[in-house]
Write a structure and sequence with these properties.
The structure holds two protein chains of two kinds. Chain A has no helices and 13 strands. Chain A has strands at 3-7, 11-12, 18-25, 36-41, 48-53, 59-61, 69-74, 79-84, 93-100, 105-107, 110-112, 116-119, 123-127. In chain A, strands 2, 4, 5, 6, 9, 12 and 13 form a seven-stranded mixed beta sheet that branches. Chain A is globular, with a radius of gyration of 14 Å. Chain B has strands at 9-12, 18-23, 33-37, 44-47, 61-66, 69-74, 83-90, 97-99, 103-107. In chain B, the strands form two sheets. In chain B, strands 1, 3, 4, 7, 8 and 9 form a six-stranded mixed beta sheet that branches.
Chain lengths: 129, 108
């Protein structure tokens, strides 16, 4: 059974870099036909897609975060990670990692039929001094 | 940018039918997907690709489309169906993958 687990600091100072990892168990990232993504949810608010990646290293970000977000994969550890630079209080959120459903695809920078069928439990990251 | 619009709340009595709508300009051409999030838990996919039910999701959950509006229908609502429901889709450019604002389903 596929499981995802987020890990990383729960507190980050303003202007610093948020770093989170997602460890995948019960399946392999490399060679998988699935994309893998990060989604966040500010306290009491709705869900926001941050970005996603393919095991080959291709990455995709929502435009509003593309200048600050980086997603990368470590196939040896079967992990993928998120870095978000220059954080502010607005980046305080529960961060989820998730696996995409099998049917999604990308053509260049355009990606379609994306949905998330397996989620981690999420980790709260608070940006505060 | 691209937006999906959902009603903030829906209330229904046990055993009745709940319908939750989601509107967006690209929905006639792009798939919609639905998630249920219970308090303190991660979202769970309940409908994908407009109307497909993932393994383990009860048959009482169904999805349909009509123009720029998609609808999640829960037939014979049970107390355990209470929570926040989010629709999700993509704009026509394939660069905005968005969730609706969420609908809180209350089972009276």
């Amino acid at each position: 059974q596929l499981q995802l687990q987020e890990s990383g600091p729960g507190l980050v100072k303003p202007s610093e870099t948020l770093s989170l990892s997602c460890t995948v168990s019960g399946g392999s990232i490399s060679g998988s036909t699935h994309y893998w993504g990060w989604i966040r949810q500010p306290p009491g608010k709705g869900l926001e897609w941050v970005g996603s990646m393919y095991y080959s290293g291709s990455t995709y970000y929502i435009p509003s975060l593309s200048s600050r977000a980086t997603i990368y994969v470590d196939t040896l550890k079967n992990q993928f990670s998120l870095e978000l630079t220059s954080v502010t209080a607005a980046d305080t959120a529960v961060y989820y990692c998730a696996r995409h459903g099998a049917s999604g695809y990308c053509r260049g920078d355009s990606c379609y039929d994306w949905y998330l069928d397996v989620w981690g439990r999420g980790t709260l990251v608070t940006v505060s001094s | 940018s691209y937006e999906l619009t959902q009603p903030p709340s829906v209330s229904v009595s046990p055993g009745q039918t709940a319908s939750i709508t989601c509107s967006g300009d690209a929905l006639p051409r792009q798939y919609s997907h639905w998630y249920l999030q219970k308090p303190g838990q991660a979202p769970v996919l309940v409908i994908c690709k407009d109307s497909e039910r993932p393994s383990g999701i009860p048959e009482r959950f169904s999805g349909s489309t009509s123009g720029t509006t998609v609808t999640l229908t829960i037939s014979g609502v049970q107390a355990e169906d209470e929570g926040d429901y989010y629709c999700q889709s993509t704009d026509d450019s394939g660069t905005y993958w968005v969730f609706g604002g969420g609908t809180k389903l209350t089972v009276l």
